[in-house]
Amino acid sequence: MSFIWPAMLALLLLLPVLVVLYLEVNGRRRQRLASYGRPGAGQATARRNVRDRIPPILFLAGLAILIVALARPQTAISLPHIEGTVILAFDVSGSMAADDLKPTRMEAAKAAVRDFVQREPSTVQIGVVGFSDSGFAMQAPTNDQATILEAINRLTPQRGTSLAHGIQASLNAISAGSDEEAAIGSNSTPTPTPTPVPKGTYTSAVIVLLSDGENNESPNPVAAAQTATDRGVRIYTVGIGSAAGTTLHINGFTVHTQLDEATLQQISQLTGGTYYNAQSEQSLRTIYDHLDPQLRIKPEQTEVTALFAGVGFLVLLIGSACSLWWFSRVP
């Protein structure tokens, strides 16, 4: 258990002072009763002595619990959540700077998913992965749309293209979000392949791969797609660019780049996903319909101030009731 305002626990040091004050006041009251010659005032019975102690002890316990409540305690509670995960895997290779989609392929890819992110259901978490000649996680899966959009806006074109690294980094991000041991990042070899799920069985996680499909780096993207299939992760591919393509001038070299729809369609078909064109962003919304959210148990830090406050007031109420019932007064 931890506390949001731990300094408030210092108030517990006042409890011994209150005990001393109570004993002092109670002792003087007994002396006054004895001086009036009230029967039984001088020496109470054992039963009365027990009753005398119960209400003050309850009051002391109630105050202690309320002080702990003031410190705003929180504890890890395992709560059930019905949720799915979408990983947005962006191709950030140099060819994404091409302008056959205006203003550039990269900006067209960002535009294609902004509406998709803003329509995120409450049961879905979205993560962001970038890949060029390696794969790297930009944002772990989250429900915070502003954080997701900021991660997308930071993406810029660079280096070559390895679709396989993008798929591997996305699978690692999904595994990390599921509390499995996986390293998010890049040139490392894939994690050991788990037992393949039955054909047609899918998890609650999908990958949306946004790329022009031009793969010029190892390993083979089809092999990486097969790994996704074995894990029950569908890949929805989004083609960025035009079939005619365009010519880029990069570092003194002239390179012709064009959309490779065949590769992207092969990846989506192999994994049970669907191929989309970047200009049909309205169709991306149907990906949410294909998600199969699953019940997951996740520990979360939950504030339990109300629980402590309720128990504290209940203990004080019981102490007051006992005192009024037995002695017709409050301690």
The CATH class of the largest domain turns out to be Alpha Beta
Number-wise, the strands total: 10
Structural class: alpha/beta
Q: Based on Cα principal axes, name the global outline.
A: elongated
Radius of gyration: 33 Å
What this model shows, in words?
Helices cover 40% and strands 22% of the residues. With 331 residues, it is an alpha/beta fold. The protein folds into 2 domains: 101 residues, no CATH class; 201 residues, von Willebrand factor, type A domain (Rossmann fold, 3-Layer(aba) Sandwich), CATH 3.40.50. The strands form 2 sheets. Strands 1, 2, 3, 4, 5, 6, 9 and 10 form an 8-stranded mixed sheet that branches.
Summarize the structure.
This protein has 331 residues and is an alpha/beta fold.
Blueprint (SSEs and pairs):
Elements: E1 2-3, H1 14-35, H2 46-70, E2 73-91, H3 105-118, E3 124-131, E4 135-142, H4 145-153, H5 163-177, E5 205-211, H6 221-230, E6 234-239, E7 246-250, E8 253-257, H7 261-271, E9 275-277, H8 286-290, E10 294-303, H9 305-327
Parallel strand pairs: 2-3, 2-5, 5-6, 6-9
Antiparallel strand pairs: 1-2, 2-10, 3-4, 7-8
